[in-house]
Specification:
By secondary structure, the chain is of the alpha/beta class. The protein is 46% helix and 14% strand. It has two domains: 146 residues, Rossmann fold; 54 residues, no CATH class. Helix 8 runs antiparallel to helix 9.
Length: 216
C-alpha cells in the first residue's frame, strides 16, 4: 500500500518506520526537511509538499504537534486540501481540539476523500512496535477501510479490571479518611456498564457509551 506520513517528528517518524517494516511503500513530508532524512536513508520517498505527498499515496496520515500545525498542513500553500483527494483515505493522528478536527474532516470529505481521526496514546517505543493505543472515530465504512480487515485484538484491560482498580482506590482512600468523588463516580459508571453486560469489553467502552448518551 502507498502510504504518506505528514509530520515526521518523533512519533510520526516512529509510525512511518513501523509501516515500512510492514512492507508498505512510504512517502514522507515535514516542514523541516532535515527530519525526513533518517527515513529517506531507510528507503522512504520524500515529498516536496503535503499536496505532492497526496498525489503519490492512497492513504495519507497526518501527525503534527498542535492545531496551528494541522491548519498549515491542510490549508497552507500546497497543503493537503489543495490536492486531488478523490478516493483517498486521510487519517489524522494528531491530538487537537474537537472543533479543529471536525472542520478539517468536513473539508476533506468535500474534496472526495474518506476521513478518520485517530489520536493515539503511547510513546516512540510502542509506535515502532505497532502497539499504540488509538481512539478511532469516523464513518463505519471509513473506519473499516482504515483497519484494512485487521480487527483490534481482544481487550487487554477490560471493564472488570477497571472496576477492580477503581474499587481498590476508593476503598484504600476510605482507610485514610479520604473521599475520592471523581473515582467513585467513575466506579459507578463502570458498575453500570458491567450490569449491562459489558464486563468483558475493553474499558474504553464506558467513556464511549457515556459520550453517546447510552449509559444509565
Amino acid at each position: 500500500m502507498k502510504i504518506g506520513v505528514c509530520g515526521t517528528g518523533k512519533m510520526g517518524a516512529a509510525i512511518a518506520q513501523r509501516l515500512m517494516s510492514c512492507s508498505h511503500k512510504i512517502t514522507v513530508w515535514n516542514r523541516d526537511p532535515a527530519k525526513t532524512q533518517p527515513l529517506a536513508s531507510l528507503g522512504a520517498n520524500v515529498a516536496a509538499s503535503p499536496a505532492a505527498l497526496c498525489q503519490a499515496c492512497d492513504v495519507i496520515i497526518t501527525m503534527v504537534l498542535d492545531d496551528s500545525a494541522l491548519d498549515a498542513v491542510y490549508r497552507g500553500a500546497a497543503g493537503i486540501l489543495s490536492a486531488d483527494l478523490s478516493g483517498r483515505l486521510v487519517i489524522d493522528m494528531s491530538t487537537v481540539l474537537p472543533a479543529t478536527e471536525e472542520a478539517i474532516a468536513a473539508e476533506v470529505k468535500e474534496k472526495g476523500a474518506a476521513f478518520v481521526e485517530c489520536p493515539v496514546g503511547g510513546t516512540v517505543g510502542p509506535a515502532r512496535e505497532g502497539k499504540l493505543f488509538g481512539l478511532m472515530g469516523g464513518g463505519e465504512a471509513d473506519v473499516a477501510r482504515a483497519l484494512a480487515g485487521q480487527l483490534p485484538q481482544a481487550a487487554s484491560f477490560d471493564v472488570r479490571a477497571a472496576r477492580k482498580d477503581l474499587s481498590t482506590m476508593v476503598a484504600y482512600a476510605r482507610t485514610l479518611g479520604l473521599d475520592l468523588p471523581t473515582a467513585a463516580a467513575a466506579l459507578k459508571s463502570f458498575d453500570e456498564a458491567a450490569a449491562q453486560g459489558l464486563a468483558d469489553k475493553d474499558a474504553i467502552a464506558v467513556p464511549a457509551r457515556w459520550a453517546s448518551g447510552t449509559m444509565g
